[in-house]
Each structure stands twice: as structure tokens, then as C-alpha cells.
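Q: I have 103 residues here and want to know how they pack in 3D. Can you give me a structure?
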Amino acid sequence: MASTTASSANFKNYVLVTLAYWGFTITDGALRMLVLNVGFYYMANSGGRLAGTVLSGLVYQFFGLVGCLWTSMFFVLAAGLITLKLPNPQPSKAITWKAGDGD
């Protein structure tokens, strides 16, 4: 009887350690991917910030505050025109709203 109880306890410990290891492996991989994705986001964002800072500094040096306002207006209009060219997402199915009694 003692060997059966001991082997059952050993099996439970083995399962516990194995599940803990798998859990750590899965979460560690997910955390690594999250850190990698956030790192790439910040790297791309910092490049745009640097370019914007340099461009705004140059525009201010050569054209002053009025030049900065005109340049910002140009970029806002350009962004607006670019968004007009984006495809309009159409849902594949008709969405119906089923209102309840209180809605």
C-alpha cells in the first residue's frame, strides 16, 4: 500500500511541475511577444517624433510661427485627403439590432 500512495504522490508532483512549466513557457512566450510588439511600436513612433521635431524646428527657423501654422495646415489637409482614399469597410452580413422591452 505504501508504494501505491508514494507513486500517486510522485505522479501528482510530476503533473503539478509539468503544468507549472507549461504555464510559465506559454506566458513567457506571450510576454516576450508583447514586449517585442511594444518595442517596435515605440521605435516607429520615436522616428516620427524625431522627424516632426526636426521639420518643425527648420520651418520655425526659416519661416517663423506663421510658417509653422501653414505647414501644420498643409499636413492636416494631406492627412484628410489620404483618409478619403482609404477603403470603406463594409460588413459582410446585415447587422440587425434586436431591441428588448426596455430599449
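Q: Anything worth noting?
A: The helical segments are 2-84. The two ends are 65 Å apart (CA to CA).
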